Amino acid sequence: MSKQVISEFHGAFKGRFENVLRWEQLDDLRNTLEADAGAGWYIYAVGDTPPIEPADGERVRKFLGEIMLLLRKEHDEDYCGIVYTDSMQQPGFVKFFDPNNLGVSCGFSDNPPLPGWILSKIAPQELGSAAPLPGNRRRWWQRLLGR
Question: How would you classify the pairing of strands 42-45 and 117-120?
Answer without folding.
Answer: antiparallel
